[in-house]
């Protein structure tokens, strides 16, 4: 690297800069060069598919004049013969911060910042479309050289900071000229991401879902502003509207976020170019369906160091698989017709690029696709196909000269020309002196063999009887060899300096330890043996089998998604939750995903029979208050976050889904957390393990939103609370204020006059219009009563109080209001406001006629909600049938899905659980958990999965051991943590990867 | 139906309102009591179906088959427990009951002292016998506990108490019986504030942390050999570990940590060692059995610690250990551990759902716990001569569906089953009844 740097600098000094033609000229006479340069006899890749076997590339003024088999060469041409070599268009990097200084992080403050730091711009500091990379651009020749060495010629660079990051610039890695020549396009694209700026401490958004909502609202505001409705100046919105016609490139960073951002783009008529995560193969069909062009990192993980069996036991199968599967991502994307560019982003240095690229090719990425991903596709994505990415006439003369196939491990990259200027990476005129030599000195005859890369040769020197230590360097036709003398007690050397002749003989002199100079001649005898065998082995290992992707792609995923079946349960004890109550010795037929028949002696020829004698069949368990299967829970950056939705952040790969199925859970409401009085919208999902995130959400899902009261929303445990409200008194006013505004908003909207669409107020208006329901986190009676009164004053009802631990104190008022209570069975004593929480709460509310559910708010407890329901039998003598309804039919009612689920009734969804024992008993296990006729959990299948996990892990560990023994770099074991989110879980915001 | 329920409720409340006011510890037993007709679960694996138990002077004087017994019932108060079940009082080890009242209120938290090596810290004196959380244990049958400090590498010294007392002195059953050591973790979390990557990585400080413990134990031993010139409270507090008067409870979950901890204890000639946590103890059950080391097993109702683990691993770990001959009891530490301790019987019930017999499961939280805490000469089973610390339940006490206590006794004292919570239940049920 250092050497390369030196080489390129040497050229810099020897060639003077071109001046711009209208600039004054004081350093000498005009030296404009109008000569042509021709590279002849090369194999030329004009494009990945248009290849000339023996052609000429003619360039002038930094551009391609012509390229082809028979190009007329003008007289004033400097012709370079490159026979036997290949010429490729140089590569294009789409995602880089080349030449842009790292933004300075804002000072961390003890007091949270809710307002923007700027005026005249958008209200959120993390929206900065007004930023332009060209204004901050400072050419960095050191980084340029690293990229040149990796084969890149142009880079699209931008400021890596904020959610909207402003425009990027397309620059050439031109070490010779100034920015006047390097900058190909000043504003080449607009960049975005889901991450906040480091330059501001403004709290909002604290979560990915907040970032998504912010983007959506931003587009609405820009539209409103663009139509001239705003009375005030907003430089951000102006810039955003100005950048509208640029390519929009967004950093998603994972396949899950690729899908999320693509959806936002679709809603706003934008097709983003999306930076992926290298894990797109996990949901290839969904990725393909986005039609989004992608930028794909190739930071394939190193194998783990699995020598320590104890530590290795903590390694998850999904992390192991990533090592095995990720290198196949580019191949699979190509096979599925997904257009993508490759990037050095996420690599420690561009030096790693070739090795990783070779890995992708060894895993099946075709060379043609690889070249496209580095040349024509990025050019096309930037709308610059006419000037970069190929060697067609008129393109910049950005090309690579190689010893052969550029995607071959042994190929040497000789030169990387950018805008017609030559950068020598490896001197192509260097004579290959690798091989065996013989020479004599002071009566001894030595054998010398030279091996390794030409820039880093190693020598072995021996006589018939002895081996000698030696070192060699080779540079510009000269070798220097130092040879230790035989006497090991003295540190003495013979120093040899010799010139390399064309016949590869080395001629020069040797200076003996005594200082005597002797003539030196080493005769070349034969070429170095090819080391093909060992490299081949390594490649064999690399392309060893790819383990199948499962859905989701972890140990418990399905290789193929399970299908709905016709099932006939025979002789079960059926808890109908309907008028029939509990039916003994009863058959239940499930067909087409629905409960088809309930009765005695049912037969069906096509049905799979399940002997349920002695077992219990119930409706699937429904958890009204869950935080599993979500990538984030709280948007706490504002006191209202009605604009955010958990539906945006469903994590369908969460192992909690599987574990909840094992506890008989079939439907859950994923609620926003309780960090603010008005939280976010819920996701109501079925635990269809293996399906894509969007497929988990209920069809025509009822609309819900989380509200919260009490200690959490008034930030009781924050040291520096400055966000309104800090008391229960303030909480009431937050609601009054927002509903008043939502009412006015609604009126304006219905008046037909122009209005600024506001997602937050739209959501609140839905509540006023009785289209959206509130599930409110609540503890003490005063605030419960308050919220009912606020709702009544705005002429709507609260749907559910969740937690509602003092519900028993106001059960009569709740009944009158018509609100349900979804509570814990026995939690209390964890904070001051639950001092009076009692396990009899459910029974008292139930006795007063309130619709009562028992919820979890906890990924562990939800695995045994049936037992939590049973506690209502213990505490307060609720009947067993009613107790089971607390976790089935009643939460279905509270979620407005009781027409579909919650009981065993003909026509309802076949969401059922077969229990080994009485479903309220601690001794009962879920044997089968079925959703719409699909068996998602089965005790017997689970046993098989355990075995297959063991087997696959062993195979992968063995492969990693082999990799380590081959000398491949390894990484230390990491333990994958399963984070359990609760009401008060705040996202750990990361500014950087 | 609803009316019936309401009237049942009112009868129930009528009955319960006679019971002694909540929170007042029961007086000493003055009259002999006989419990007749219950299924007696002895706690050692045995069951007597139609039993008679006579409590005299706080002790179990008679336990046997009711039909074969020929006791003079005059002057004995009898409790007809036909169809009901009698159990030894459940025992919770490694508990912070009484050390914290409300998790989120710092002023009420006394469970973790600052500092790293705190063997001299004693939990007992901070134990609030009048905690509202403690009284809520009793209606579920949890009557005894080992009160254990948290925090640091060595958290301090625990004591065993009973849950119906005026103050900590009254409550104490066995004082300063164990020292608690938190073994260094195999993994450590990236310190993001120092620019480290987040997530769990192998703990680079592990050897250093273990050496620190070795040094401390060596120094303590040297100190306690004699010739001390100045009192050193921490060294002083380790003494019992070497002479066997105190047990060393090593809190450790991972396989390698457990093995290292065993080697550590052996190297320092620790006489009585117990593993607390032991999530992966099942992987070294043979070693534990061979060294006679019991396990105080991590909360059964918890999620598996690795993503690829069997979903029911925490449910069946007890079975895996018991089948290999390891002495096991259950603990409840973790999130909301104090209020959750009343669910200890259901943790045991879960181990029965996942492999153990019901009597084996019961034994985990009765006789096994007593043995591990060193109080089995008096507590942990229904045997003649032992303390009458027991309760009567209408049904299977390990199942939440049927765990309903009618009576509970600690040292023969007929204790109250009322709590702050039952009081509120009655108050508000009455409110609605009278509306």
Relevant terms:
heterodimer, A: 993 residues, alpha/beta, TIM Barrel, Lipocalin, Urease, subunit C, domain 1, 4 domains, 26 helices, 41 strands, globular, disordered N terminus, disordered C terminus, B: 435 residues, 2 domains, eight-stranded mixed sheet, 29% helix
Description:
The complex is a heterodimer of chains A (993) and B (435). Chain A is of the alpha/beta class and 993 residues long. Chain A has four domains: 89-417, TIM Barrel, CATH 3.20.20; 435-527, Quinohemoprotein amine dehydrogenase alpha subunit, domain 2 (Lipocalin, Beta Barrel); 561-620 and 902-964, Urease, subunit C, domain 1; 621-901, TIM Barrel (Alpha-Beta Barrel). The longest helix of chain A is centred in the last third of the chain and has 27 residues, at 939-965. Chain A starts with a helix and ends in a 28-residue tail after the last helix. With 435 residues, chain B is α/β, with parallel strands linked by helices. In chain B, strands 1, 2, 3, 4, 5, 16, 17 and 18 form an eight-stranded mixed beta sheet that branches. Classes of the chains: A alpha/beta (993), B alpha/beta (435). Chains A and B meet through helix 16, helix 23 and helix 26 of A and helix 1, strand 11, helix 10 and helix 13 of B.
